[in-house]
Amino acid sequence: MAQGWGDGLPLIPPTQQRVQDFLIAGGRFPDELIAVLPPLRAECTVEKIAINAVMAGCTGDAMPLLCAAIEAMADPRFDLAGLNATTGSVVPAMIVNGSIRNRLDIPCQAGCLGGVAGRAVAIGRAIRLIMRNVAGQSIGSTSQSVYGTPGRVAGIVFGEWEERSPWAPLAERRGVGGDAVTVYGAMGTANICDVVANSADGFLDMIAKSMAYPGANGFLPSSAFAETLCVINPIWAEVIAKAYPRIEDVQAYIWDRCALPIDWFRPEYRDPIGNLGRIKPDGRVHLVPTPDDVLVMVAGGEGGLHAAMLHSWGTCLTVTRPVETA
Amino acid sequence: MTIILDPTASLVHDLAEPGPDAGVLRGKKIAIRIDMLWRSWDWVSEIWAEGLRAEGAEVTFWRSCGRTGREGEQAERDYGALLAQSDMAIVGLGNCGSCTSWTIADALTAAAAGIPTIAVATAHFEGLAHNLAKRGGRSGLRFHILPYPLDILPKEQVHDIARNHYRSFLRNFGVRSRLAEQSAA
């Protein structure tokens, strides 16, 4: 902490020996450049990843996932420069697909968005330390986040429960099969609860309408476009898939109902939103421009009753990368 | 002996010089970069543009919109084309975290093109703006700082602020007064 390297929690000293052991287990060359990270615009090498990962309590076999995640976050589409500086309460969420979920003990079932014990906490923390120490993200200095979010300590790292999903894995639908990580700029997580619905349309109506609130990122009059993510529990997913076997139909359903009438917005908002061409002929404004911008995945416990919504930040676009293991 | 490795990375190169002065305005093409977020910056820059035009400059506005994906790639091209046709650039507004980040990024691009450049931010985000400029390798970037909060003020009040700041803005930009110009001539 005295060096300004930490997050307030105890750190494991990154001794030369520990870092060497990590690098050997990780199977990458230490001087390999993975990305240039803003706002510091500093070079993030494999060695820097290893040092921060050791401090976080990570093990070497997570190196391929860490490298893939950093590469994805550095993609210009992700707008890490803006994300790391914003007043918003955003953190890059990491969604893991493929068998690497099991090898790294990435949670996709009960408590997957936070609280379940496992190695994802250290993996997420390693990424957060890299953002502090390498990218230079620092509250009050380069980050202007008004509130921050608990996810800025140990990240949001979870998997898709592919075995219980009636649809193809999220990463595969985004063009990357097998082991993959998808990074998504998440303005925290929020719960959607329903103890009444018992049909696909009932569940989807509740999800879609809950996601549509005026202060959500997608409705910002300054945003020409945005994405959004909803996480559906496996119990609801099974019911929904019987009515909608195609994920595109689920996305379209949510997109259609995730909208607000323009007259819900005060008059001063209407012109800026209208100038973006976002008011449909029926007088509604959709949270996101197209059904493709609604990301849907399956994860969570078998208790059902809840879905999770993760609103996006700015015009940050989701990026999926393969996780390449030796 | 146990050796502890450094987890941080730093940028070593820095340009402390502000770059060329704006100098004489008459006959110059000035690009003003505005954005989707801040009506107050629209109001300030329209007042400043009046003044600049009165000095004989030609002013072109460019509005920064989505900066990611295809729209972002197009924005990069459009901004580059604008700078190629401009003699100087006024870039704003740093009035939040991400918009300050983009303001500085766009100002650094303009400065790197070798034209007189000034970034504009509000007081609350001044520290961030300087930090980002330094971390972007140009701590000497010119700045003009407007009061904060600005965007919640009515248009008339923002116009007054713009008028009150116009002369100090010109000084910060390195504009030579007509008097100095005549004297030099």
TrEMBL record, chain A:
<protein>
    <submittedName>
        <fullName>Uncharacterized protein</fullName>
    </submittedName>
</protein>
Automatic annotation (TrEMBL), chain B:
<dbReference type="InterPro" id="IPR057767">
    <property type="entry name" value="UGSC-like_dom"/>
</dbReference>
<dbReference type="Pfam" id="PF24696">
    <property type="entry name" value="UGSC"/>
</dbReference>
<protein>
    <recommendedName>
        <fullName>UGSC-like domain-containing protein</fullName>
    </recommendedName>
</protein>
<feature type="domain" description="UGSC-like">
    <location>
        <begin position="4"/>
        <end position="171"/>
    </location>
</feature>
